[in-house]
Write a structure and sequence with these properties.
heterodimer, A: mainly alpha, ABC transporter involved in vitamin B12 uptake, BtuC, 2 domains, B: alpha/beta, Rossmann fold, six-stranded mixed sheet, 10 strands
């Protein structure tokens, strides 16, 4: 019952349809490998990873006002921690994933103390700088395979279906975590910080503590996400794992296209991104031009629909599929005038 | 009356730009202390030093006998210092209800569920109840000013700092805000109230403090302060050798 409350699912026809849709989506995702083709399984595996990544960037930029260009650091750290733990110490993959997340989270704590005093672009550039510094440091160690990187050896024997479940279970858990976080008191404080950090402090919101928690959450989850990606692709090439274009640019694209500051925006954006990048990569004559095309699409969306696809639809129809809004009308019985 | 706030020999600066120097005064429980002074006298800076957005480099701020000079703004808020801003700072993308809910939950250290009832009560008191579910970026200036007061009130302050609540409003709107201030006075909350336009506040304050170039020029009953030659000079720039 408590869980239903958190999802704002009430006992109305509309809510029942919504609940049924969510249950149906979960069932489809959990059973896909048994009826879908190999390519579908692969595509949805990628979607799970990129949607998770998009949700993390959205949590930082869209809900907490922290524009980061350094998410790739957590991807790389999570992946290398997983590979080292698994290859050298025989740690099982699931445990390695979680420990990789913990290592990323510890780094996020360190970064928070160093960087959270900065704002806006200064914070963004500093996060990017630390990610670049991290890969330059890491490739000096034989332990991490120097410039060659590492293989996640245990992942070679996994089937595509097993890789799929790593991705999809992560996606569903992260979606649940994000919704619960945004619906919690911490989420309310983050919205306030995002909209006006000065007024939020004088309203009693602890600025540093709130941002620290959100940095830790994104650090942990993005670290796990990096591990899941390299379980699927086995070989961790360091410059690619720590690449801003492979990861953070993708995350920004996903969130901008889907709708920044919306819960379902990264889902829509992630699906579009994976289809588009798969299609563009089949056009081999284009080479690296596909990045240009993604850029043009992002700019076009910003001009035509600055709120992104989901944001624009929500604005037009006044309807959110999954919402973090606290409506007063949910608490009072007398009828309020319909103006808005 | 008990002393609730003591500003003791405070010096404050933005970087190298020194704004307050050697400023001292006390505020007493339940009173309305008006602070007047020309542009650049340091009125808003003083508010920032009291609510914690600016830490003085010398001197002390004592609240209810406790030294809060270096305390963070959110801790001061939970101790009972609420404030409003001259240029309203609503949480744009949140509704009016959510704006006040933030202050009601965080300003008192309660859960959201515990804060809902008071939030609705404050919205009724400040005339914003009908607009509870409107996103605050859609509000006009008068309602933004109301929202500032609502948010300040929702933190359950014992000391409320009002920064030019009447600035920028039409005469009719000023009346509406003044009614709200009168209501606040009735609740027994100590109020420190800045206003640039002296006329609006002279009649409804217990004491007036006039600031000039970052220090206290004169303090006392409104009639005494308003009649002072010094006050006339800082506002009108009267020559010394008249």
């Amino acid at each position: 019952m408590k869980l239903l409350d958190l999802f704002r699912i009430q006992n109305t026809a509309n809510s029942k349809i919504r609940l049924a849709a969510i249950v149906a989506a979960v069932v489809v995702l959990m059973t896909l490998p048994s009826w879908g083709g190999g390519y579908a399984v692969f595509i949805v595996t990628l979607m799970g990873i990129y949607i998770t990544l998009g949700m993390m960037w959205n949590l930082l930029a869209g809900y907490s006002g922290l524009v980061s260009l350094g998410l790739q650091m957590y991807i790389g750290v999570g992946a290398f921690a997983l590979a080292a733990l698994s290859n050298y110490y025989g740690v099982p993959l699931v445990i390695g994933l979680l420990l990789g997340g913990v290592v990323s989270m510890v780094i996020a704590v360190g970064l928070s103390y160093l960087l959270l005093r900065m704002r806006g672009m200064y914070f963004a550039i500093a996060t990017w700088m630390f990610a670049e510094a991290m890969v330059l440091l890491l490739v000096n160690f034989e332990y991490f395979g120097r410039g060659q990187g590492l293989f996640v050896l245990a992942a070679r024997s996994l089937s595509e279906t097993e890789k799929y479940y790593f991705s999809i279970v992560m996606l569903l858990v992260v979606l649940l975590v994000v919704v619960l976080l945004l619906r919690s008191r911490l989420g309310l404080g983050l919205f306030a910080i995002r909209d006006n950090d000065v007024a939020s402090q004088t309203s009693g919101v602890p600025l540093f503590k709130s941002k620290l928690i959100v940095m830790m959450v994104t650090g942990f989850i993005t670290g796990v996400c990096g591990g899941v990606y390299y379980i699927a692709f086995v070989w961790i090439q360091p410059y690619s794992a720590f690449s801003i274009t492979t990861w953070t640019v993708a995350a920004v694209f996903i969130v901008v296209i889907g709708g920044i500051g919306t819960i379902t925006g990264p889902i829509v954006g992630g699906v579009i991104y994976v289809f588009l990048s798969q299609y563009l990569s089949t056009l081999t004559w284009m080479g690296s031009l596909n990045m240009v095309i993604l850029g043009v699409i992002a700019v076009a969306v910003i001009i035509v629909a600055p709120k992104g696809i989901v944001g624009t639809l929500q604005h037009r129809f006044g309807f959110e599929i999954i919402s973090a809004r606290r409506w007063m009308k949910g608490y009072v019985t007398d009828r309020l005038p319909d103006h808005i | 009356m008990e002393k609730i706030l003591s500003v003791d020999n405070v010096y404050a600066a933005y970087g190298k730009f020194k704004v307050l120097h050697s400023l001292s005064f006390d505020a007493y429980e339940g009173e309305v202390l008006g602070i007047i002074g020309p542009n650049g006298a340091g009125k808003t800076t003083l508010m920032n030093a009291i609510c914690g957005l600016l830490i003085p480099y010398e001197g002390k701020v004592i609240f209810n006998g406790r030294d809060i000079t270096k305390m963070k703004p959110d801790e001061r808020c939970r101790l009972g210092i609420g404030r409003t801003y001259q240029v309203p700072k609503p949480f744009d993308r949140l509704t009016v209800f959510e704006n006040v809910l933030v202050a009601s939950a965080y300003g008192t250290g309660r859960s959201e569920a515990e804060a809902v009832e008071d939030t609705i009560e404050v919205l009724k008191q400040t005339g914003l109840y009908a607009k509870g579910d409107v996103e605050s970026h859609n509000l006009a200036l008068l309602d933004r000013k109301r929202l500032e007061i609502a948010r300040g009130l929702a933190t359950k302050p014992t000391l409320l700092l009002l920064d030019e609540v009447a600035a920028g409003l039409t005469d009719a709107e000023v009346h509406e805000v003044m009614d709200l201030v009168e209501y606040l006075k009735g609740t027994g909350i100590t109020i420190i109230w800045i206003e640039h336009v002296i006329k609006t506040m002279a009649e409804s304050t217990d004491k007036l403090l006039c600031l000039a170039v970052g220090t206290n020029l004169i303090y006392g009953d409104p009639a005494y302060v308003m009649g002072s030659k010094d006050v006339e000079e800082v506002y009108l720039g009267v020559d010394d050798d008249e």
